[in-house]
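User: Here's a chain of 123 residues. Predict its fold as tokens.
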Amino acid sequence: MSHNFRNLKVWQKAMDLTDLAFDYIRDLPTNERYNLIDQINRCSCSIPSNIAEGSGKRTSIHFAEFLSTALTSSFELETQLLICERRQYGNEEKRNNCLALTSEVQKMLFTFRDYIINNKVLS
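Assistant: Prediction complete.
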């Protein structure tokens, strides 16, 4: 039995975060195309992708592992955004919105992962 990942609030928020991140990178310098831009694309897509992939796993432990991977991708995204902040790249308001939503998604992932593990939602 798997979760319908589209109904998971954490997946929905992660998709919103991906949209925000894609919008933010439009303002980055073109010389960052193969560095920060690609990295932000990859890690922001990885968050909802890992939630979705994990939802199809058979056990709570396996699902929790994918939630942990999504969480690590969110920390990677946060770091990339902070690098942009230090370099004063892109639109500050968009970046701050991304950072705020990243923090919210991280909290949701922590909570959901702990819930999955402690309640053994999947057998």
